[in-house]
Design a protein that fits this description.
This protein is α+β, with helices and mostly antiparallel strands. The chain contains eight helices and 16 strands. The strands form four sheets. A six-stranded mixed β-sheet has the order 1-15-14-16-12-13. Strands 8-7-11-9-10 form a five-stranded mixed β-sheet. It has a three-stranded antiparallel β-sheet with strand order 3-2-6, with helices on one face. Helix 1 packs antiparallel against helix 8. The radius of gyration is 36 Å and the shape is rod-shaped. It starts with a helix and ends with a helix. This is Polysaccharide biosynthesis/export family protein. Its main location: membrane. Keywords: Cell outer membrane, Ion transport, Lipoprotein, Membrane, Palmitate, Polysaccharide transport, Porin, Signal, Sugar transport, Transmembrane, Transmembrane beta strand, Transport. Belongs to the BexD/CtrA/VexA family.
């Protein structure tokens, strides 16, 4: 009876061991990836000195030596702006409508309403949205011409919704920043917002100014592609899609950020703890990459047993959305099969002893 039970246990164990789909694993076996039957689904490329060229990471771009020289942009007023209007009247003492320049003139602080209008004494309600400061000064002088003898007007922007820049997204202190102290470059605006919350290569910067929208990588901006922002621009920082997946016999499988722009395969493996020495197959390191719309996906294979492969892995670039997959060693797969058999034999021997 006991012998029958032991035989039954061994039969079940051997049946499960012989069924590849039942054994645990993170992905396909090395032989399945290399099988010719899969060639219609993707191109399998052995990375060596003759094939590495299309997969090499590009040379680092040199940092630009230019310095951005901010030039003042023409500010157009809009609803919400606050302007300071100074009107002086040089008429004979006591006969002017406004204070003379010698006493500081007449100061009027005015907010432009949501319809773009302002209201001033003897000038009335006037539409100023879209006008420059000089145009507002000319308008005031024209409206007061004939009302008083010798009037002068000067307009300053003291609350510049129209000239400010909005910075939002992945920054430490988002907000709206004034250009009253001078024009803002993109780096100025981001620095005033506390800087990005992630490493530069993981940050994309979108700049909108009402006429167009452009997106840049923040690391490129730091390399010298800085520029002056137009008034009333919006600057949005968000996470760049710079991720890859590590699977199989690596130290830390999962979804990871690329550690740098133009990350090499060796750097990517290092960032996930490298190959697991206990069960990794160094000859079964693969990189899966989706193809373009008109090309097949590519699977790169690299034999890390080859000393030259260390240099190749340093040159191969890992792109966002790549998958690095390290297969298990054959002896490890065999241990998964033989382990349950040995355990069953030990259990059977224990049962017979009883």
């Amino acid at each position: 009876m006991r012998n029958s039970a032991v035989a039954g246990l061994m039969l079940v164990t051997l049946t499960l061991a012989g069924c590849g789909g039942t054994l645990s694993g993170a992905g396909p076996y090395k032989g399945d990836i290399e099988s010719k039957s899969q060639s219609a689904a993707y191109d399998l490329v052995d990375i060596n000195a003759n094939t590495i060229a299309p997969f090499m990471r590009p040379a680092a771009k040199p940092t630009k030596a230019k310095i951005t020289s901010p030039l003042a942009q023409s500010v157009r007023l809009m609803g919400g702006d606050v302007i300071n209007v100074l009107i002086t009247d040089n008429a004979p003492e006591g006969s002017g409508l406004f204070a003379p320049l010698s006493t500081g003139g007449t100061q009027l602080k005015v907010r432009i309403d949501d319809k773009g209008m302002i209201s001033l004494p003897y000038v009335g309600h006037q539409f100023v949205a879209g006008m420059t400061l000089i145009q507002v000064e000319d308008m005031i002088r024209q409206k007061l011409k004939g009302v008083t003898t010798d009037v002068q007007a000067h307009v300053d922007l003291v609350g510049d919704l129209s000239g400010s820049v909005l910075v939002a997204g992945a920054v430490k202190a988002p907000g709206r920043f004034s250009t009253l102290q001078g024009p803002l470059t993109l780096l100025d605006a981001v620095n005033q917002a506390g800087g990005p919350v992630m490493e530069p290569h993981l940050v994309n910067v979108t700049v909108r100014n009402g006429a167009q929208a452009s997106t840049y990588n923040y690391e490129d901006i730091l390399a010298g592609n800085n520029f002056v922002l137009k008034p009333n621009s919006e600057v949005i920082l968000d996470r760049a899609r710079q991720r890859f997946v590590a699977m199989g016999a690596v130290g830390e499988p999962g979804l990871h950020d690329l550690p740098a722009q133009n990350t090499s395969l060796l750097d990517a493996l290092g960032s996930v703890g490298g190959l697991k020495e206990s069960n990794a197959n160094p000859q079964g390191v693969f990189v899966f990459r989706m193809g373009e719309s008109d090309t097949k996906p590519t699977v790169m294979r690299i034999d890390m047993r080859d000393p030259a492969a260390i240099f190749f892995a340093r040159q191969v670039v890992i792109k966002p959305d790549d998958t690095i997959y390290v297969t298990n060693a054959a002896v490890y797969e065999w241990q998964k099969i033989i382990g349950p058999v040995v355990q069953t034999l030990v259990l059977g021997r224990a049962l017979q002893a009883n």
